[in-house]
Design brief:
Layout: H1 18-31, H2 33-36, H3 45-55, E1 62-65, H4 68-80, E2 86-91, H5 95-103, E3 107-114, E4 117-118, H6 120-127, E5 135-138, H7 152-165, E6 168-172, H8 188-192, E7 197-202, E8 214-217, H9 220-234, H10 239-250, H11 254-279, E9 285-286, E10 294-298, H12 309-314, E11 320-321, E12 334-338, H13 344-359, H14 361-364
Parallel strand pairs: 2-3, 2-5, 5-6, 6-7
Antiparallel strand pairs: 1-8, 3-4, 7-8, 9-10, 10-12, 11-12
Helix pairs in contact: 1-10, 4-5, 4-9, 6-7, 11-13
């Protein structure tokens, strides 16, 4: 039986712009070989300038990193290494964020996520309870794992509440350009003006994971501390990959590829939604995402999704159990299904297999 993975949020092979990346790599070596093959503290300057132009900031506030997760790692190191404290996180949230925060001594404090993104009333209560948190981490657009998007008014409140409380915000936005429907809301960084919000994003989701390049847009006060951590960690990020990306973007390939990737992801999302309606038990609940990579499915409350994972893997349809994303120990009956990698026909086959498994689940795997 073939394996149809619903596990990792990565673009499928047919989504990768191989020929354009190859041409960009050649162009980078022809146009700027010395810089492309040298150390580049802070990252390849022409790409930093391109990112800065897109976001309306000076290139000095742009730090290139080895994927946006490395940006979070630098912030966590700066805030918590040797000074443990609280970090507010969405519940559920990106599982690797929880691991990084705990590695540097932070205690993740959960704030519930609703169908409309972070529960801002709950955030307000969390800010007023216990020790003052040092950080709020959130993915406000097409959230990982739930796929939700925080509306504009909620974003304004998040910015205002954290500014008043003196709590730094890290806005992780790897999926925001991959929108299928609806109108985009302003980023937290735009609403804040960049004084109290660190904005991170990545070319992993919009181009290819192998380029291993993300970026941070930093408040002025964090520019030097982050530069020091970056240089001490790796001297400089992957300059050749960044020079290739710069040639790719300046050749006008970025926006067309985002449009192409979005169309392919929309087709995958639609295939998943249609097949979920056809094959999943009536007790299952999900909300169709308007963009991004993931569908979050909540099964019947008496089902432990973790206990079914081995059998799902045996049937060739592994997923990530919801509990992996929860700082509170919840989400035991939920699963995250990544629709980005398989082709639409594979998605239909895989969801049908999972639907058969989950239809048997209440009797087979009650929660203790």
């Amino acid at each position: 039986m073939s394996t149809i993975p619903f596990t990792r949020g990565v673009p499928g092979p047919s989504m990768l712009p191989v020929a354009d990346i190859k041409a960009a790599a050649v162009a980078a070596l022809e146009q700027d070989p010395n810089a492309a093959l040298a150390y580049g503290p802070g990252g390849y300057l022409p790409l930093r300038e391109w990112v800065g132009e897109r976001h309306g900031v000076d290139a000095s506030r742009v730090l290139l990193v080895n994927g946006s997760l490395q940006g979070l790692t630098y912030i966590a190191q700066h805030l918590f290494l040797g000074s443990p404290g609280r970090a507010l996180v969405e519940d559920p949230t990106y599982d690797r964020t929880l691991k990084v925060l705990r590695t540097f001594g932070a205690s993740p404090s959960p704030v519930p996520v609703t169908d409309d993104g972070m529960d801002v009333d709950a955030l307000e209560r969390a800010l007023g309870e216990g020790a003052k948190p040092a950080l709020l981490y959130l993915i406000p657009t097409f959230q990982n794992p739930r796929g939700t998007t925080l509306p504009a008014e909620g974003r304004r409140r998040v910015v205002e509440l954290c500014r008043e409380a003196g709590v730094l915000v890290l806005e992780d936005d790897p999926y925001g350009l991959l929108r299928f429907e609806g109108e985009p809301a302003p980023t937290l960084h735009q609403l804040d003006g960049g004084d109290n919000v660190v904005y991170t994003s990545s070319f992993t989701k919009t181009i290819a994971p192998g380029v291993r390049t993300g970026y941070m847009i930093l408040p002025e006060r964090l520019v030097k501390p982050m530069a020091v951590i970056s240089e001490n960690s790796c001297i400089g990020p992957n300059t050749f990959a960044e020079a290739t990306l710069n040639a790719y973007c300046r050749a006008g390939r970025f926006e067309p590829n985002v449009e192409r990737a979005t169309a392919m992801l929309r087709e995958r999302r639609d295939a998943m939604s249609e097949t979920l309606r056809e094959h999943f038990p009536e007790t299952a609940r999900w909300r169709e995402p308007q963009g991004g990579y993931f569908t979050w499915v909540e099964l019947s409350e008496d089902v432990d999704a973790g206990s079914l994972l081995d059998e799902a893997t045996r049937r060739g349809v592994p997923y990530v159990k919801g509990a992996d994303f929860s700082a509170s120990g919840g989400c035991r009956s939920a699963v995250r299904l990544a629709f980005s990698y398989p082709e639409p026909d594979q998605i239909r086959e895989g969801v049908a297999r999972l639907g058969a498994l989950f239809s048997e689940a209440p009797a087979a795997a009650p929660v203790a």
